[in-house]
Specification:
- It is a single chain.
- With about 150 residues, this protein is α/β, with parallel strands linked by helices.
- The chain contains five helices and seven strands.
């Protein structure tokens, strides 16, 4: 699992959840975003900044990177931590981590190979069309316009 976060924990349950994930065999790679000094959260719509994120008291929210929390989560699950400040380093780290994990097959599904049967219906439709156009006494208007049998004189 890849967790992208600033590491701030408002519920005090992150380490317990990480231990539970470890029991289930889930490794967590954490990527820290933000700065230790903190910063505001811009709100954008269609690429245009509309303002800053505010809390219930209408105060601007300041988020700070807590790399210790993210490192603890990663260690608890035998995963790893990467600082998101350098995108290339993060991509290389995640790519390397994914290439080195043990690959297991979760479930195998056998699919039945069905034979297409539309040809029977298509053949029957052509048979009815042939009977309508060539064998029946009355001819449709579009067949008369085609002049298939040179019935109209020029």
């Amino acid at each position: 699992m890849i967790l992208v976060s600033d590491g701030e924990d408002h519920s005090e349950g992150a380490e317990a959840a990480a231990e539970e994930a470890n029991k289930l065999g889930i490794k967590i790679i954490t990527i820290g975003v933000g700065t230790p000094n903190g910063g505001t959260i811009p709100l954008r719509r269609n690429g245009v900044m509309e303002g800053l994120k505010r809390d219930s008291n209408n105060e601007v929210v300041i988020t700070k990177l807590n790399s210790e929390s993210l490192t603890a989560i990663a260690k608890a699950t035998k995963g790893g931590y990467a600082n998101g400040a350098n995108t290339k380093e993060v991509i290389d780290y995640v790519k390397n981590a994914l290439n080195n994990i043990e690959k297991t097959e979760f479930e195998a599904t056998q699919m039945a190979d069905f034979q297409s049967q539309f040809q029977w219906f298509l053949g029957f439709a052509f048979l009815l069309l042939f009977a309508d156009v060539f064998l029946l006494e009355r001819k449709t208007k579009w067949v008369n316009r085609l002049n298939l049998f040179n019935e109209k004189e020029k």
